From TrEMBL:
Pathway: Cell wall biogenesis; peptidoglycan biosynthesis. It comes from Pullulanibacillus pueri. Residues 1-16 form the signal peptide. GO terms for molecular function: serine-type D-Ala-D-Ala carboxypeptidase activity. Belongs to the peptidase S11 family. This is serine-type D-Ala-D-Ala carboxypeptidase. Removes C-terminal D-alanyl residues from sugar-peptide cell wall precursors. Its EC number is 3.4.16.4. The active site is at 65 (acyl-ester intermediate), 68 (proton acceptor), 125. PANTHER family: D-ALANYL-D-ALANINE CARBOXYPEPTIDASE, TRAFFICKING PROTEIN PARTICLE COMPLEX SUBUNIT 12. InterPro entries: Beta-lactam/transpept-like, Peniciliin-bd_prot_C_sf, Peptidase_S11, Peptidase_S11_C, Peptidase_S11_C_sf, Peptidase_S11_N.
Length: 391
């Protein structure tokens, strides 16, 4: 049986194409419906990706301003890889200044820092700020939208297509509750975003005569314990939408509703799902983020062997009141790794399973940059091997 499980897990890893923690949970529904008056919904635990509840989770619908979760994800990826900085000034184009809907009334030619534009997007859902950032990062709206769809594909999202970075109504712009939850899951790998999404009110241009008061569109920050993000959405077509995240007792969950008739109904349904998660489930950290799991050899590298670490915490999700199941832990590292590689490159997985079901699959990454060896590094290494061997 153990041999069968090992073969099964290896096969699953071989065919996994998504670089982030994958979801292998089956769709689960509670016997009593958690949500009623919405078009679609999903509830999942963030670290394992386990789906705790769903309703029409793959139904393609307009996401409205929840689109900005992907916009924020690309911004935070750029901040993380140092191609963007918070104090960097962004000049606003005529196109960005012309956006309708929620906005901070940017003027063409105005300059604002990335930090302030992030506040405008995360707190005030500003369409003009979103477009200004999109053009700054990619050169044009069209190029940024290509990046959005490329990232969606990299995350394995099969029912999402973007046509703009704002969520304003347009053709061929859709997503699902499941895909929005997975985008939120990826964004939460940059916890700095919560500094912005958890802020209820702030000011822009504070020391000028154009002072602008920002109030968070997510009113649940004031009404539900543990909520610290992420993004609301509304258009006449999409109705009221929300991707929310909350953390209690070390467990973070994500809840998405799409197509609620009123903001009150939207918030009520999200609260119902979050209550269910915190009442019925708990998590236990098995391995912390960044722990060295093993040293691995990288072919033609200057370093020879490099440390491989967990990209995220390895977490075990348990249903309260149920006996602990026997779990199996396995580390799988891809074969024939070759230099060069950047720090953070996925090279394998830490897999937690029970019987033949994968409970969590956490990426393992190289801790530091791996450089390609020069010929003299390889020559020196081969001499060293010979010297330590039969000579």
């Amino acid at each position: 049986m153990k041999a069968f499980v090992a073969i099964f897990l290896s096969a699953m890893v071989a065919f996994a194409g998504v670089p982030t923690a994958s979801v292998f949970a089956k769709e689960k529904k509670d016997s009593q419906a958690l949500v009623d008056n919405v078009k679609s919904a999903i509830l999942l635990e963030k670290d394992t990706g386990k789906v705790l509840y769903s309703k029409n989770m793959d139904k393609e619908l307009p996401p409205a301003s929840m689109t900005k979760i992907m916009t924020l994800l690309l911004i935070f990826k750029a901040l993380d890889n140092k191609t963007l900085s918070l104090d960097e000034k962004v000049q606003v184009s005529e196109h960005a200044a012309s956006m309708g809907g929620s906005q901070i009334f940017l003027e063409a030619g105005e300059k604002m820092t990335v930090n302030d534009l992030l506040k405008a997007i995360a707190i005030g859902s500003a369409n003009d700020a979103s477009m200004a950032m999109a053009e700054h990062l990619a050169g044009s709206e069209k190029s940024f939208v290509k990046k959005m769809n490329k990232e969606a594909k990299a995350l394995g999202l099969k029912h999402t297509h973007f046509s703009n970075p704002t969520g304003l109504p347009t053709d061929d712009h859709y997503s699902t509750a499941h895909d929005m939850a997975m985008m939120a899951k990826a964004l939460l790998n940059y916890p700095e975003v919560l500094k912005y999404t958890s802020t209820y009110e702030d000011y822009l241009r504070e020391n000028t005569d154009k002072k602008f008061w920002l109030v968070n569109t997510n009113k649940m920050l004031k009404t539900y314990q543990g909520i610290d993000g992420l993004k609301t959405g509304f258009t006449q077509e999409a109705k009221y939408c929300l991707t929310a995240t909350a953390k209690r007792n070390g467990m973070r969950v994500i809840a998405v509703v799409m197509g609620a008739p009123t903001p009150k109904e939207r918030n009520k349904e999200v609260a119902s799902m979050l209550n269910y998660a915190f009442a019925h489930f708990q998590t236990k950290e098995l391995v912390p983020k960044g722990k060295v799991m093993r040293q691995v050899q990288v072919n033609k590298s200057k370093e020879g062997t490099v440390p491989v670490v967990t990209q995220l915490p390895v977490v075990y999700l348990k249903e309260k009141g149920k006996q602990n199941e026997k779990i199996h832990k396995e580390i799988i590292v891809h074969k024939n790794l070759k230099a060069p590689m950047k720090a953070g490159t996925p090279v394998g997985y830490y897999i937690v399973s029970s019987k033949d079901e994968i409970l969590s699959k956490t990426p393992l990454v190289v801790r530091e940059d791996v450089h390609k060896a020069k010929w003299w590094h390889l020559f020196k290494r081969s001499i060293g091997k010979m010297t330590n061997g039969s000579w």
